UniProtKB/TrEMBL annotation:
HAMAP family in the record: Tgl
Protein name listed in UniProt: Protein-glutamine gamma-glutamyltransferase
GO molecular function: protein-glutamine gamma-glutamyltransferase activity
Domain of life, source organism: Bacteria
Key words, A-Z: Sporulation, Transferase
Stretches assigned to coiled coil: none
Taxonomic classification: Bacteria, Bacillati, Bacillota, Bacilli, Bacillales
GO biological process, one term: sporulation resulting in formation of a cellular spore
KW Cell wall biogenesis/degradation (keyword) present: no
Amino acid sequence: MTGSQDGIDMSTLSGVEREIVEKKRRSPENYVYESPAALAFELNMRRRIVEAAVALDASGVTFVPFETTRGNRNFWSRTREGGLRLNDGVLPSDGINDIFRNGRLYAFECATAAVIVLYKGVLDALGEEVFNSYFKNLLLYDWQYDSDLQLTAVNNREEAYPGDVQYFKNPDHDPNKPEWQGENVIVLGRGMYFGHGIGITTAEGIISALNRERVPGSRTSAYLLDETFHPDFEYLRRLSAGRSLPSAAVRYTGYAVIARIGSHNYRIS
C-alpha cells in the first residue's frame, strides 16, 4: 500500500508518524478511518504525546509518592490526598505548560505524570482555545482525568503504538515502597518507553529498575501487562472541529478513572 493510497504523503511524516503507519499496515487488525484527515489527526496527536513525554523527562520534575507531591503554588494547590488542583483564575493551558517550563518546582508519581503527558499532547494538538474550553477545573491526581480525555482500552500489547500508555506490573514489590508496585509508561516508539521516576529506556530497562525494588530475595519479575490505553482520537478530533459527537459516543461528567470502553478497529485503506 502506498502513501497516496492512504491519502497521506509518507515523505511529510515524522519518524514517529511513519513508524505508526508502517506498523498498522503490518498489523493483523483492521484500522479503518473516516477520512485521511482522521488518520492525520491521530498521527499528529500521537506524535505530540511522544514529544510531551520526552519534554517531561527533560523538565526537571521529581518522582515522589503522593504524600510529598508538590507544584508551583502560583498555578496549583496541593490537595490532602496528594493531588494538584488548578488554582482559580488560571487557564488550564497555562497550568499544564508551567509544569514543562518550571519542572523543578514539581514532584509527583508516575500515574499523575502519564495523565500530564496526555494533557500536554492534547493541548499541543488542539490548541489553547479548544483545550481551555473543554479541560477546565483540572485535578492532577493518580488516574483521575477530565471526561473529555476519553481514554480507550485495548487488551493487546502487540497493538501498542507510540503515544499509547502501558503498565509494567511489579507483583513482588517491597511493601514499604508501594510507589514501585508498577510503572505507567508512554510508548515512544522504536522499543523505547518513558516512565516517570525511571526515565527513557527499553522494556528491559523498565523491568530491571522495578526488579531492584522487589522484596529481598524475590525471583518474581516485573512484566508488561497486555492492556494499553490511548485517548479517543476521533472524539477529540470532533471537539477540535466543533462537531457534534455521534450518539454512540460515551460521555462522562466530572472526573473518572480509566473506563474499559473497548477498542476501536480502524483500517488504513
